[in-house]
Design brief:
Blueprint lengths: L2 E10 L4 E12 L5 H9 L9 H13 L15 H6 L1 H8 L2 H17 L6 H25 L1 H4 L9 H4 L4 H23 L1 H21 L6 H21 L4 H23 L2 H7 L4 H4 L1 H24 L5 H24 L2 H24 L6 H17 L12 H15 L1
Antiparallel strand pairs: 1-2
Length: 413
């Protein structure tokens, strides 16, 4: 075996001095050439410290381990102990916890805005049931999209993509949450709310999810899915759907477009790589136009809610600055169509919806169904009072009327 001894030396041409260090390194002559080994050492930052020999030892040991069998598989088993310790976190990731929280918030807003007495038990049942159904829908969605999520930077760390959970776990979780959630809605709230939840679960998992790779219409269908949770809250409180519920549903439907279009704008490479047919990918100009158009629709809905007896006039005035700024951000996104403008629009949309729901709750016109009935009754009384004298109808006992007729008839005889 041959070795070469390398000694560190310094040569200063300016001062005409030379120095030789006492430190030296023994190099083993192998396949690599001696000049290449010396060049690597001379350019190494570890030359002047004592860690050089340690780094050389680590390198030599790494070369020895090359003969060992290495695991080059892309998919590896997850230790069961790790899975059991993080089951709560994995379930939250399966349910898309932040998205589910937004769905529950809109459902709670629909319940609170309905003109009916507030019942805490029904309110809690409606919120929990809606959250469980949403969690089931998101779990099934991830089950179907594992090969496509693996191609996107935003979704490549999901639990099914990384193999932290198996597909059977996702299906079992979805079955348990959907059955529990729909049971709570049916027995704890009312059948109408449960029917809306079941229909929304079917739309999201069986229609919207496959349509994302088939047609650009998936965005419109996804907006319908997002508009149903406030209807569930309203139906959970009143047991029916009226004009107020339609106002809430239309508001959530239109809000989806500037929110999602701004989000998808910066994810175009990911969506294109995974094969999703989104507006931002297939028709960017339409994506910007639709976002701007629906911010104007939101402004109109907020003004119309006053005339539909959902809110008072103060809501129309207080929501106007929010909606105008929302329209300005959408116009800026439409005009510039860059990442910065789309990011500003998306971030403000996350603040816009809770602020709008809070303003609607504060300026709610009727707090119970009895108030609507009481306000309609005086109007009927006033209408009767406006009738002319001959048209009034008096209900009198039969006896006095007969006596009066007899008295009137006697003088004539």
């Amino acid at each position: 075996m041959s070795y070469i001894k390398v000694i560190q030396c310094k040569l200063c041409l300016k001062s005409s001095t030379a120095a030789i260090s006492k430190k030296s390194v023994l190099l083993k002559i192998g396949k690599d050439t001696i000049p290449n080994q010396i060049a690597r050492i001379s350019t190494s930052p570890d030359w002047r410290n004592k860690s050089l020999t340690a780094s050389i030892k680590v390198t030599s040991s790494a070369k020895k381990d090359k003969n060992a069998v290495q695991d080059t598989r892309d998919w590896k088993e997850t230790p069961s102990l790790e899975r059991h310790n993080n089951v709560g976190q994995y379930c939250m990731m399966l349910s898309k916890f932040r998205l589910t929280s937004l769905v529950v918030m809109t459902s709670m807003a629909g319940y609170a805005l309905a003109p009916a007495p507030f019942e805490l038990t029904t309110f809690a049942m409606c919120a929990v049931g809606t959250g469980l159904v949403s969690a089931a829908a998101n779990s099934i969605n991830q089950y179907h999209e594992v090969p496509f999520d693996a191609q996107m930077s935003r979704t490549k760390n999901r639990v099914l993509v990384k193999g932290l959970l198996e597909p059977t776990h996702a299906i079992g979780f979805a079955a348990a949450t959907s059955a529990t959630g729909l049971s709570l809605l049916y027995f704890g709230v009312n059948p109408l709310t449960a029917a809306l939840g079941a229909g929304n679960l079917f739309l999201y998992t069986s229609v919207y999810t496959p349509m994302k790779r088939m047609s650009i219409l998936n965005t419109w269908l996804g907006s319908v899915v997002g508009a149903i949770p406030p209807l569930m809250g309203w139906a959970g409180c009143t047991g029916s759907l009226d004009a107020g519920a339609l106002v809430l549903g239309a508001l959530l439907y239109s809000w989806q477009f500037p929110h999602f279009n701004a989000l998808s704008w910066n994810l175009r490479p990911d969506y294109s790589r995974a094969g999703y047919r989104m507006m931002a990918v297939t028709d960017p100009a339409l994506c910007r136009r639709v976002a701007l158009r629906h911010t104007g629709v939101i402004t109109g809905i907020c003004l119309a809610s006053t005339y539909l007896d959902v809110t008072n006039m103060w809501f129309a005035l207080e929501s106007l600055p929010l909606n105008i700024y929302f329209m300005y951000l959408a116009w800026d996104f439409y005009r510039k169509s860059d990442s910065a403008s789309s990011r500003r629009l998306f971030r403000f949309s996350l603040l816009h919806l809770p602020a709008l729901m809070l303003l609607m709750l504060v300026n709610k016109k009727y707090w119970s169904s009895s108030e609507t009935h009481d306000q309609k009754e005086p109007s009927k009384t006033q209408d009767i009072g406006k009738l002319s004298e001959p048209k009034r109808i008096s209900v009198l006992p039969r006896g006095p009327i007969v006596t009066a007729q007899e008295k009137d008839a006697s003088p004539s005889c």
